[in-house]
Amino acid sequence: MFREMRRAKCALNNETAEKILREGVFGVLALSGDNGYNYAVPLNYAVENNKIFFHSALTGHKIDAVKNNDKVSFCVVGRHDVVAEEFTSYFTSVIVFGKIKIVEDTAEKIHALELLADKYSPNVNKNLREKEISRFNAVKILILEIEHLSGKAAREIIRNGEI
Predict the structure, then answer these.
(1) pLDDT digits over 65-100, tens only?
(2) Is residue 97 within 8 Å of residue 29, measured between CB atoms?
(3) How far apart are CA 124 and CA 121, in angstroms?
(4) Which one, of 97, 47, 101, 45, lies nearest residue 70 by Cα?
(5) pLDDT digits (tens, 9 = 90+) for 1-28
(6) Going by C-beta distance under 8 Å and a sequence separation of 6 or more, which residues neighbour residue 127?
(7) Which residues contact residue 54 at a Cβ distance below 8 angstroms, ignoring those fewer than 6 apart?
(8) What pLDDT is attached to residue 74?
(9) Could you please report the per-residue DSSP string of the chain?
């Protein structure tokens, strides 16, 4: 159903790809946008089990796209070192394919916001954190259920045993 990686020697095992996904700072969500144009948007995210959690405004292009087509991809770059004298970069990356949905369940929304707060604001005052999470009705929560995950690294990273 999903394509094989063309450069199989650059493929990462699932454990390494999942680690890059979990530890990434942000990724780019690609959706089917308006008028046949793809729509790609950089987002913060959190991962738990086989799901990726995002927060969003209540309305907008992203929400409309999710409602129109639940099939998406999400890309995270774990490392990107430009090596000018070699006219290349040493990189690691992960691409996920899956289906995304808008969360309606209150407990699930709060859980997602807690995961995001754990990742991006781990040392914030407890009262401030609780106040922010209590605003769950001011945001939409999206969950991407992973159907396929693949990771890739530059040959040099693999050759040097850096991964």
Answers:
(1) 999 999 999 999 999 999 999 999 999 999 999 999
(2) no
(3) 6
(4) 101
(5) 887 878 778 889 999 999 999 999 999 9
(6) none
(7) 29, 43, 44, 45, 141, 142, 143, 144
(8) 98
(9) --PPPSSGGGEEPHHHHHHHHHH-S-EEEEEE-GGG-EEEEEE--EEETTEEEEEE-SSSHHHHHHHH--EEEEEEEEEEEEEGGGTEEEEEEEEEEEEEEE---HHHHHHHHHHHHHHH-TTS-HHHHHHHHTTGGGSEEEEEEEEEEEEEE-HHHHHTT--
Structure tokens at 37: 């144009």
Q: What is the DSSP letter of 59?
A: S
